[in-house]
Amino acid sequence: MQGNLGESVVSILSTTGLEPELLEVELTESLLIHNASSCVSTIDSLRTLGVSIVINNFGTGYSSLGYLKQFLFDTIKSDHSFISNITNDSTDVAIASAVIRLSMDLDINVVAEGVENRRQMDYLCQQKTSGIQGYLISTPLSAKSYSNLFHSLKEGKNNY
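Now predict its structure.
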């Protein structure tokens, strides 16, 4: 919202030496609603650098399918409110399935937020969701704890 996100990201990438392809910038629908015109150029400049753009909490604000065309996201994060009851609510199943299918048709990754149990994960895997996020995998972690978890998963030391 400060208007210098692109410049800040370039500076941070330069300072840290991080490859742009390893960075994802998450934007919320509310940010896009209030700053759509300025977001287009910022998103374009970040994508040109190789940074991935993610729309977070998709479907909870004033969702516009036009955003999917206008902003060219790499990933959509489906809000947890549509995931929490997918094993017993036909409306949530329909919404989750539609978001997943639309994402697949547009060649956009879709991550389901708020996955808390194995039944939810199994359903989402059957639907070919790109990824999941939630307490089933882990509670929020510090950077050090995340690093430890990442390395244990990478080495195949997990229960999933």
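Strands lie at 24-28, 52-58, 75-78, 109-113, 131-133.
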